[in-house]
Amino acid sequence: MNNVIDLLKSHRSIRKFSDKKISHELLVELIQAGQGAATSSHVQAYTVIHVKNQANREKIAELAGGQGYIASCSDFLVFCADMKRPTEASERTGSNVNRGMTEQLLVATVDTALMAQNVAVAAESEGLGICYIGGIRNNPQEISDLLRLPDHVYPVFGMCLGYPDQDPEVKPRLAVEAVLKEDYYTDDSEQVQTFDATMQAYYQARSNSNKNTDWSHNLKPLFDNKLRPHMRDFLIKRGFEMK
Questions:
Q1: What is the mean pLDDT of residues 47-62?
Q2: pTM for the complete prediction?
Protein backbone atom coordinates (compact mmCIF):
# COMPACT_ATOMS: atom_id res chain seq x y z
CA MET A 1 0.00 0.00 0.00
CA ASN A 2 1.16 3.55 -0.66
CA ASN A 3 1.09 6.47 1.77
CA VAL A 4 -2.16 7.91 0.40
CA ILE A 5 -4.04 4.65 0.90
CA ASP A 6 -2.57 4.25 4.38
CA LEU A 7 -3.69 7.79 5.22
CA LEU A 8 -7.23 7.21 3.95
CA LYS A 9 -7.55 4.03 6.02
CA SER A 10 -6.32 5.74 9.19
CA HIS A 11 -9.04 8.43 9.48
CA ARG A 12 -10.36 9.24 12.96
CA SER A 13 -12.74 12.00 14.01
CA ILE A 14 -10.88 14.45 16.25
CA ARG A 15 -12.82 16.39 18.86
CA LYS A 16 -10.02 17.67 21.10
CA PHE A 17 -7.59 20.18 19.64
CA SER A 18 -4.39 21.87 20.83
CA ASP A 19 -4.03 25.64 21.00
CA LYS A 20 -1.80 25.66 17.91
CA LYS A 21 -3.39 27.57 15.05
CA ILE A 22 -3.50 26.66 11.39
CA SER A 23 -1.73 29.24 9.23
CA HIS A 24 -3.79 31.16 6.69
CA GLU A 25 -1.48 29.92 3.95
CA LEU A 26 -2.13 26.28 4.86
CA LEU A 27 -5.89 26.86 5.07
CA VAL A 28 -5.87 28.33 1.55
CA GLU A 29 -3.90 25.29 0.32
CA LEU A 30 -6.51 22.99 1.84
CA ILE A 31 -9.35 24.81 0.11
CA GLN A 32 -7.48 24.68 -3.20
CA ALA A 33 -7.00 20.94 -2.68
CA GLY A 34 -10.75 20.72 -2.12
CA GLN A 35 -11.35 22.50 -5.40
CA GLY A 36 -9.38 19.78 -7.15
CA ALA A 37 -12.18 17.27 -6.46
CA ALA A 38 -14.39 15.98 -9.25
CA THR A 39 -17.38 18.24 -9.95
CA SER A 40 -20.42 17.48 -12.09
CA SER A 41 -20.11 19.24 -15.47
CA HIS A 42 -17.54 21.58 -13.88
CA VAL A 43 -20.41 23.33 -12.05
CA GLN A 44 -18.44 23.67 -8.78
CA ALA A 45 -21.68 24.06 -6.87
CA TYR A 46 -20.23 24.79 -3.44
CA THR A 47 -19.25 27.66 -1.18
CA VAL A 48 -17.24 27.34 2.03
CA ILE A 49 -17.85 29.75 4.91
CA HIS A 50 -14.81 30.16 7.18
CA VAL A 51 -16.42 31.11 10.49
CA LYS A 52 -13.89 33.28 12.31
CA ASN A 53 -16.25 35.25 14.57
CA GLN A 54 -16.01 33.53 17.96
CA ALA A 55 -19.52 34.49 19.04
CA ASN A 56 -20.90 32.96 15.84
CA ARG A 57 -18.90 29.79 16.40
CA GLU A 58 -20.28 29.47 19.91
CA LYS A 59 -23.80 30.01 18.60
CA ILE A 60 -23.28 27.34 15.92
CA ALA A 61 -21.93 24.95 18.57
CA GLU A 62 -25.16 25.47 20.51
CA LEU A 63 -27.39 25.09 17.44
CA ALA A 64 -25.55 21.93 16.42
CA GLY A 65 -26.42 20.19 19.67
CA GLY A 66 -23.84 21.50 22.12
CA GLN A 67 -20.72 20.40 20.25
CA GLY A 68 -18.17 22.58 22.02
CA TYR A 69 -15.26 21.65 19.77
CA ILE A 70 -16.83 23.85 17.09
CA ALA A 71 -15.81 26.80 19.24
CA SER A 72 -12.46 25.42 20.42
CA CYS A 73 -10.90 24.08 17.19
CA SER A 74 -8.41 26.17 15.26
CA ASP A 75 -10.75 26.75 12.32
CA PHE A 76 -14.38 25.96 11.58
CA LEU A 77 -15.76 25.67 8.07
CA VAL A 78 -19.33 25.37 6.86
CA PHE A 79 -19.66 23.64 3.50
CA CYS A 80 -22.64 24.90 1.52
CA ALA A 81 -24.32 23.50 -1.57
CA ASP A 82 -24.51 26.52 -3.86
CA MET A 83 -26.74 26.68 -6.94
CA LYS A 84 -26.92 30.48 -6.82
CA ARG A 85 -23.54 31.06 -8.48
CA PRO A 86 -23.90 28.64 -11.44
CA THR A 87 -27.53 29.45 -12.23
CA GLU A 88 -26.87 33.19 -12.17
CA ALA A 89 -23.78 32.72 -14.35
CA SER A 90 -25.88 30.81 -16.86
CA GLU A 91 -28.61 33.43 -16.69
CA ARG A 92 -26.16 36.19 -17.57
CA THR A 93 -25.50 34.45 -20.88
CA GLY A 94 -29.20 34.73 -21.74
CA SER A 95 -30.23 31.28 -20.54
CA ASN A 96 -33.81 30.74 -19.39
CA VAL A 97 -32.80 29.06 -16.13
CA ASN A 98 -35.02 26.40 -14.58
CA ARG A 99 -34.38 26.54 -10.85
CA GLY A 100 -35.44 24.17 -8.12
CA MET A 101 -34.86 20.89 -9.96
CA THR A 102 -34.16 17.82 -7.83
CA GLU A 103 -31.07 17.08 -9.91
CA GLN A 104 -29.69 20.51 -9.02
CA LEU A 105 -30.02 19.65 -5.33
CA LEU A 106 -28.26 16.33 -5.88
CA VAL A 107 -25.47 17.87 -7.97
CA ALA A 108 -24.80 20.63 -5.44
CA THR A 109 -24.85 18.26 -2.47
CA VAL A 110 -22.56 15.70 -4.12
CA ASP A 111 -20.17 18.42 -5.34
CA THR A 112 -19.99 19.80 -1.81
CA ALA A 113 -19.31 16.42 -0.23
CA LEU A 114 -16.58 15.56 -2.72
CA MET A 115 -14.91 18.94 -2.22
CA ALA A 116 -15.06 18.63 1.57
CA GLN A 117 -13.56 15.15 1.56
CA ASN A 118 -10.62 16.43 -0.45
CA VAL A 119 -10.14 19.12 2.19
CA ALA A 120 -10.31 16.49 4.94
CA VAL A 121 -7.72 14.24 3.32
CA ALA A 122 -5.42 17.19 2.57
CA ALA A 123 -5.72 18.34 6.18
CA GLU A 124 -4.89 14.90 7.59
CA SER A 125 -1.89 14.67 5.26
CA GLU A 126 -0.57 17.78 7.02
CA GLY A 127 -1.01 16.28 10.48
CA LEU A 128 -4.29 18.02 11.22
CA GLY A 129 -7.40 16.45 12.68
CA ILE A 130 -10.92 16.97 11.38
CA CYS A 131 -14.47 16.31 12.49
CA TYR A 132 -17.52 16.62 10.26
CA ILE A 133 -20.49 18.36 11.90
CA GLY A 134 -23.81 17.17 10.48
CA GLY A 135 -25.50 18.74 13.50
CA ILE A 136 -25.75 22.09 11.72
CA ARG A 137 -28.76 20.57 9.95
CA ASN A 138 -30.50 20.43 13.34
CA ASN A 139 -31.27 24.13 12.90
CA PRO A 140 -30.48 24.92 9.27
CA GLN A 141 -32.56 28.09 9.05
CA GLU A 142 -30.86 29.65 12.07
CA ILE A 143 -27.45 28.67 10.66
CA SER A 144 -28.40 30.14 7.29
CA ASP A 145 -29.53 33.39 8.89
CA LEU A 146 -26.35 33.60 10.95
CA LEU A 147 -24.14 33.08 7.89
CA ARG A 148 -26.37 35.28 5.67
CA LEU A 149 -26.84 32.54 3.11
CA PRO A 150 -28.98 33.58 0.13
CA ASP A 151 -31.66 31.51 -1.59
CA HIS A 152 -30.41 28.51 -3.59
CA VAL A 153 -27.64 27.95 -1.01
CA TYR A 154 -27.93 25.61 1.98
CA PRO A 155 -25.50 24.42 4.69
CA VAL A 156 -24.71 20.73 4.20
CA PHE A 157 -22.32 20.18 7.12
CA GLY A 158 -19.54 21.81 9.07
CA MET A 159 -15.95 20.75 9.63
CA CYS A 160 -13.71 21.33 12.63
CA LEU A 161 -10.02 21.64 11.78
CA GLY A 162 -7.03 21.78 14.09
CA TYR A 163 -3.98 20.09 15.50
CA PRO A 164 -5.09 17.00 17.47
CA ASP A 165 -4.89 16.84 21.23
CA GLN A 166 -6.03 13.22 21.36
CA ASP A 167 -5.13 9.95 19.66
CA PRO A 168 -8.31 7.85 19.35
CA GLU A 169 -8.39 4.38 17.84
CA VAL A 170 -9.43 3.89 14.23
CA LYS A 171 -13.05 2.76 14.18
CA PRO A 172 -13.63 -0.54 12.30
CA ARG A 173 -15.53 -0.56 9.02
CA LEU A 174 -17.81 -3.14 7.44
CA ALA A 175 -16.07 -5.96 5.61
CA VAL A 176 -15.37 -5.24 1.96
CA GLU A 177 -17.64 -8.15 1.06
CA ALA A 178 -20.60 -6.27 2.56
CA VAL A 179 -20.17 -3.18 0.40
CA LEU A 180 -18.48 -4.50 -2.75
CA LYS A 181 -20.85 -6.70 -4.72
CA GLU A 182 -20.30 -8.31 -8.11
CA ASP A 183 -22.85 -7.67 -10.87
CA TYR A 184 -25.92 -7.74 -8.59
CA TYR A 185 -27.07 -6.66 -5.14
CA THR A 186 -26.84 -9.55 -2.67
CA ASP A 187 -27.84 -10.05 0.95
CA ASP A 188 -25.21 -9.10 3.50
CA SER A 189 -26.92 -9.99 6.80
CA GLU A 190 -24.14 -12.42 7.74
CA GLN A 191 -21.49 -9.73 7.29
CA VAL A 192 -23.58 -7.35 9.41
CA GLN A 193 -23.80 -9.89 12.24
CA THR A 194 -20.05 -10.37 12.10
CA PHE A 195 -19.53 -6.63 12.08
CA ASP A 196 -21.80 -6.21 15.11
CA ALA A 197 -19.50 -8.55 17.06
CA THR A 198 -16.47 -6.59 15.84
CA MET A 199 -17.98 -3.28 16.90
CA GLN A 200 -19.06 -4.59 20.29
CA ALA A 201 -15.50 -5.70 20.97
CA TYR A 202 -14.19 -2.34 19.75
CA TYR A 203 -16.53 -0.33 21.97
CA GLN A 204 -15.74 -2.42 25.06
CA ALA A 205 -11.98 -2.14 24.52
CA ARG A 206 -11.93 1.52 23.50
CA SER A 207 -9.65 3.59 25.70
CA ASN A 208 -12.07 6.52 25.81
CA SER A 209 -15.81 6.21 26.47
CA ASN A 210 -16.10 2.45 26.25
CA LYS A 211 -19.65 1.05 26.13
CA ASN A 212 -21.55 -2.18 25.57
CA THR A 213 -23.26 -1.84 22.19
CA ASP A 214 -22.80 -2.71 18.52
CA TRP A 215 -23.33 -1.20 15.06
CA SER A 216 -26.95 -2.24 14.58
CA HIS A 217 -28.04 -0.93 17.98
CA ASN A 218 -26.28 2.36 17.31
CA LEU A 219 -28.48 2.80 14.25
CA LYS A 220 -31.73 2.63 16.21
CA PRO A 221 -31.95 6.35 17.07
CA LEU A 222 -31.52 7.21 13.39
CA PHE A 223 -34.50 5.15 12.28
CA ASP A 224 -36.80 4.83 15.31
CA ASN A 225 -37.86 8.43 14.71
CA LYS A 226 -38.06 10.68 11.68
CA LEU A 227 -34.60 12.22 11.41
CA ARG A 228 -34.63 16.00 10.84
CA PRO A 229 -38.11 16.06 9.27
CA HIS A 230 -37.77 19.84 8.88
CA MET A 231 -35.18 19.49 6.10
CA ARG A 232 -37.62 19.04 3.21
CA ASP A 233 -39.59 22.21 3.96
CA PHE A 234 -36.36 24.06 4.67
CA LEU A 235 -34.84 23.07 1.32
CA ILE A 236 -37.99 24.06 -0.56
CA LYS A 237 -37.92 27.48 1.11
CA ARG A 238 -34.26 27.85 0.07
CA GLY A 239 -35.28 27.40 -3.55
CA PHE A 240 -34.52 23.68 -3.87
CA GLU A 241 -38.08 22.77 -4.80
CA MET A 242 -37.22 19.21 -5.90
CA LYS A 243 -39.33 19.50 -9.04
A1: 98
A2: 0.96
